[in-house]
């Protein structure tokens, strides 16, 4: 918790070069050292240095960047829900912000909007594309609106929460209620047989969590189910692009590798790189 914050610099360490006391800053959630090979390539969310998690090293084979206010898997750093907070690697974790702009207009730049833009970059959404977005939470809604900004001709908003679907419709999207259409891939293909050009998964494993799987995970047997990913692969046109930016941490029960390879799909995943966006 506390991954998004805006504050005013009260004190700076001796190694901080770009900030001064009194600067207003957007505090980015992704920790980056700024000096490793990944940071030099501006792939800050893959930083080699900022995450000491042994658990991630064992489970993934590598460690990606630490995140403020996250679990031990991403470094276990405290969040920013406090009157004062220490921001490590401040030159790469803070962005200067104007003093005359309301905080609520800037706050989403730290995570929500930067993640949304990164998702669109991963999917390579372009002018005229038909886009399907799984998830209508803050990031999903931001993806949908920014897809329109990038020229998408049509955006399907897929969720089961009626309030979020209503908001998506108010923003000009085409809402699809998963509760009304449990087999979302078949429904999408029934209204658009050729499939969507670009698909983005922004809900993560939470969108299909079931008590039985939660119990399995608690016993050490559970894995994440891939209903959204399976639906996306089937509902995306041949040669289409898919971006996965929802929270997935473990392994899956199955992956539709046949449709993925035979349809010549491109699937890319990755967390936000707010410093670059």
From TrEMBL:
The keyword Zinc applies. GO terms for molecular function: metal ion binding. Its cofactor is Zn(2+). Pfam families: ADH_N (PF08240), ADH_zinc_N (PF00107). SUPFAM superfamilies: GroES-like, NAD(P)-binding Rossmann-fold domains. Residues 138-220 form the Alcohol dehydrogenase-like C-terminal domain. The keyword Lyase does not apply. This is Zinc-type alcohol dehydrogenase-like protein. Residues 1-96 form the Alcohol dehydrogenase-like N-terminal domain. It comes from the Eukaryota. Keywords: Metal-binding, Zinc. InterPro entries: ADH-like_C, ADH-like_N, GroES-like_sf, NAD(P)-bd_dom_sf.
């Amino acid at each position: 918790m506390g991954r998004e914050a805006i504050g005013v610099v009260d004190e700076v360490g001796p190694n901080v070069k770009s900030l001064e006391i009194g600067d207003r800053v957007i505090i980015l959630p992704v920790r980056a050292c700024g000096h490793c090979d990944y940071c030099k390539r501006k792939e800050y969310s893959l930083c080699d240095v900022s995450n000491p998690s042994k658990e991630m090293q064992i489970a993934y084979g590598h460690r990606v960047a630490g995140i403020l206010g996250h679990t031990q898997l991403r470094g276990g750093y405290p969040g920013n829900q406090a009157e004062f907070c220490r921001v490590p690697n401040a030159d790469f974790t803070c962005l200067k912000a104007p003093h005359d702009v309301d905080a609520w207009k800037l706050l989403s730049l730290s995570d929500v909007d930067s993640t949304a833009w990164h998702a669109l970059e991963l999917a390579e959404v372009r002018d005229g594309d038909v886009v399907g977005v799984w998830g209508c939470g803050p990031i999903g809604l931001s993806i949908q609106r920014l897809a329109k900004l990038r020229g998408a001709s049509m955006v399907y908003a897929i969720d089961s929460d009626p309030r979020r679907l209503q908001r998506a419709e108010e923003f000009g999207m085409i809402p699809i209620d998963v509760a009304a259409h449990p087999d979302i891939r078949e429904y999408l293909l029934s209204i658009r047989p050729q499939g969507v050009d670009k698909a983005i998964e922004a809900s993560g494993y939470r969108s299909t969590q079931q008590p039985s799987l939660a119990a399995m995970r608690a016993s050490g047997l559970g894995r994440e189910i891939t209903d959204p990913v399976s639906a996306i692969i089937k509902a995306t046109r041949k040669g289409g692009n898919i971006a996965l930016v929802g929270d997935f941490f473990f392994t899956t029960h199955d992956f539709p590798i046949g449709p993925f390879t035979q349809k010549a799909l491109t699937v890319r995943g990755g967390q936000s790189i707010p410093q670059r966006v």
